[in-house]
Amino acid sequence: MCCPGPFEVKIDRISVYQVDLPLTEPYWLSGGRLRFDVLDATLVRLDTDEGITGWGEGTPWGHTYVPAHGPGIRAGIETMADTILGCDPRQLDMLEHKMDLCLPGHGYAKAPIDLACWDITGQAVGLPIADLLGGRYDSGTWIASSISSGDPSYMLERILQYRETGYRVHSVKIGANVEKDIERVRFLEEHRLDEERYLYDVNRAWTRREAMLVMNSLAEQHITVEQPGESLEDLAAIRRQTSLPISIDESLVSLQDGVRVVRDCIAEVFNIKINRVGGLTRARRLRDLALDHGIQMYIMATGGSVLADTEAAHLAQSIPDAFRLGTWACQDMLSRDIAPGQGVRSREGKLYVDKPPGHGVVPDEEQLGTPVAVYSL
Ligand code: MG
Question: How far apart are CA 137 and CA 314, in angstroms?
Fold first, then answer.
């Protein structure tokens, strides 16, 4: 009996859209270092010769958060377009290798391509991305709110607003100065419900000395501190001189970073931001490293629309409950919805992925307007 060979799929068109995603209110990151009102989003549509279309998103959290910016994504895709066209989108590792040869680094520019390829792969085999990643746990993922820095009473007020809508996990931005941060944490911990979890996110704002002073002053608290220093070296130094659990976020970029964190016991939690690490293909390896070393995880996009949230939610829901600490719903901070009624939406403070093939989100192309670039075979 003759068996047909696997059919071929080729990417034959790349359409790149730029969209402004306004925030509902201006956002201050830790220590008032960053303030922005709008996100610069890049939406990528990949078409194939088999008629399957996939979508991916790249939306940096402003251009001063980590080394990534909106125009850089679009420039990176332009550089890689000839390499991407003609590739089979289901051969995800091979495509990653080809993109790396064409443009070393710049993972944030590759992420939307990789994500669109996962979408196509899911559609090609009729499975949601979470299933492609190994299986989908049904329990949903707690959304971590993003509580902007401010006076303790202002921060508590924001937490109470989220609490009303079912949120139980909060990423609380600190990092102003030693006394103020100690005051904030003590105040908020006094008002924390037993079933709530607060992640105190410094976003790199402390020096090593400040981290030591704050974290050692709060050593009796059952709290976790995220990214309490600028670099991986700083985190390693802070780890040696403090005892509170550390979550690594901005300094977790490559698999080599992850291996070092595990080997040197630098952090107990990974915050895997899919776009920062270069897409789902790379994020999956960090997930597996964490699972193998007793490290819990937050899984997030760097920001963006419901599409970005949905992409992250699929990876999150492939993680066993005990290791899955939370995700983020940046969509709740935006005044624009590019895919109304689609994708993951907050249900009592949690996100649940459905069972569509791929990620199941198709942006409203009328809202996206004309592509800023189209590349085709
Ligand atoms: Mg963080």
Answer: 10
- Give the CA distances from residue 324 to residues 141, 256, 291, 313, 333, in Å, rounded to whole numbers and listed in that order: 7, 22, 10, 11, 23
Max Cα-Cα span within the chain: 77
47 C-alpha vs ligand 1 centroid, how far in Å? 34
Chain centroid to Cα 227, Å, comes to: 15
**Position of tokens 């976790």?**
224
Question: What's the confidence (pLDDT) of residue 30?
Answer: 57
Q: How far is the CA of 201 from the centre of ligand 1 (A)?
A: 5
Contact 40, 48 (CB under 8 A): no
Q: Which of 98, 110, 273, 355 is catalytic?
A: 273
Decide: 33 and 66 in contact? Cβ < 8 Å. Answer: no
* Catalytic residue flag (residue 173): yes
pLDDT tens string 123-181: 999 999 999 999 999 999 999 999 988 899 999 999 999 999 999 999 999 997 899 99
Q: Which amino acid is at 215?
A: M
Q: Which parts of the chain fold into alpha helices (H)?
A: 70-84, 92-102, 107-125, 129-132, 152-164, 178-190, 208-217, 232-241, 255-263, 274-277, 280-292, 306-316, 365-368
Annotation marks residue 273 as catalytic: yes
For residue 313, how far is the Cα from the chain centroid?
Answer: 9
Residues less than 5 Å from ion ligand 1, measured at CB: 201, 226, 249
Instruction: Note the pLDDT tens digit of each residue in 187-216.
Output: 999 999 999 999 999 999 999 999 999 999
Catalytic entry in 173, 180, 350, 355: 173
Burial class (CB in 10 A: 0-12, 13-18, 19+), 21: buried
